[in-house]
Amino acid sequence: MVVPDHALPHISFRTPSHGTGTSGAGSSTGSMAGENPTTLHPAMHLSTITPPQPVEPHEMMTPDPNARYIHGDQVHQDCIPKENMVFATEEEGYAFYMQYARAAGFGSKKHKNKAMSRVYACSRQGSSEFYKEAEKRKRGKMSKRIGCMASVKLKLRGKEWFYERVELEHNHTLNPDPCEVKHMRSHKNKHPVMMDYVDGLQHSGVSPNATVNVLTELHGDYGHMLMNARDLENRRAANLRKEQVDDVKKLVTFFNECRAQNPKFYSDIDYDSEGVVKNIFWSHASCQANYAEFKDVVTFDTTYRSNFYRMPLGMFVGSNHHLQNVIFGFALVGDETEETFEWVFRTFQRCMEGKDPICILTDQDQAMANAIRRVFLETIHRLCRWHMLNKHTVELNKLYYLHKGLEEKLLTAVNHPLTPLEFENAWKEMVTEHGLQNDPTLRGLYEHRASWIAAYFKGIFCGTMTSTQRSESTNRMVKRYHVDKSTPLHMFARRMYQMLQRRKDDEGLETVYSQDPPDTKTNYHLEHQLGRIYTRAVFKKYQDAYFAATSFRTKNCSQHLSIPI
User: Fold this and answer.
1) Distance of alpha carbon 390 from alpha carbon 562, whole angstroms
2) Distance CA 377, CA 346 (A)
3) pLDDT of residue 427
4) φ/ψ of residue 171, rounded to 5
5) What does pTM read for this prediction?
6) CA-CA distance, 30 to 25, in Å (whole number)?
7) Rounded distance, CA 314 to CA 328, Å?
């Protein structure tokens, strides 16, 4: 029964007292401590409330289960299915109904497929029987199937197809807004050409946001794009699952393709006792050619999160005549033990026909050092300067704080001496001045001085390299632009090959630029001659060194001063 408004009783009540001392300062109406407690607080007033009004069923927003819905005026009359409409092929009849469903705002599906007829229905047709009554649901998402009867029956008559039955009414609301239609499974754009284009973008490492931006430009507006960001992520995940099937077999196939193109391609795969891949090494013909020219100094370092199996990546990196990074070989290793490093170094040695590098730069890893000592018998092992100092960052910062000027003296002693004797004198002067002869941090650095101080390597060519920075920068570039932690092995190898091609292209560009006449700064014949001999990058290094040399001033020394040689 509905009660009229005028019959509803009005209920008055007095708000409860807030107690004493709750009014604001300066208020003359509030009840303060020590005053008459019966004085009304400003919040105490007569209020009137009205109970909620009952609503008739026809006024409620809840959809009527008996209501029927049909397309709106946005659907052109020529696009509405009608009985006895004729189509040349079955595909045309299905495409016409799909076009109508998209314009009307509902999903569609192929419901029945018989020899002489087809039934296309609303996607909310039927009911879900996936879960039994007493069965616990695994997903909180409910089924959208509510028994909608909207459908068309396409039947074959002779050589043509026609709509024998058309039912346009739905038992649910329609969603003709393009921003809503794009989320319906049947209306997502799955055209093969578009899907191939999306796969190409994802295969090339284009980010999901960039892919969405590209597709938005193609469709003219984001609202018109019949695909959302979740669809792109699902597509990428499905492609990754497909790529990860028979990963090692695909990797071997790629290696065979490379060997067919150039017999100098080298690869080796190390398996454990159970036949599982443990270590992988490969080197392209161009890598071996670069090693033959620039094997004087090689850096080796490992990095993580570069592939799906989380195998650490190790690369043999050097420097060419343009002072660019060149890669001599790749290695994916199962662990970083001494045995693994020895396998990698011996495989690299076989690949390069027994020609060991003159000098190899690594970090302070004892397992790696032991493997180098056993494999590269004639190679000089040099430790990375940056790693040596960075390992003691905390201790050195404390010393820098306690001893003013120590940092400048330490870096000067490490970087500038030309001979071991000069370094020894500079180091002794530094520790004596600051009283740090027995400091364990400085003592540890000094004990390993012959392995990382530049003055002890003046007799060999290190290509201006004092750290594994070239390996680390190459590793960083690989992870930033080419691969990530979801990349399968065979895709990883392919992208490394693409990276080599780009590096070769950069080298070709620098070679062309180096043929231009050099920009000399003086009239000295030596500078002109070096400009013709050196590459552009090396000549720039010479000019910088020559300019820095002008900062020195000469003065007349005593004739009796003896200078040891």
Assistant:
1) 40
2) 11
3) 93
4) -100, 20
5) 0.65
6) 9
7) 11
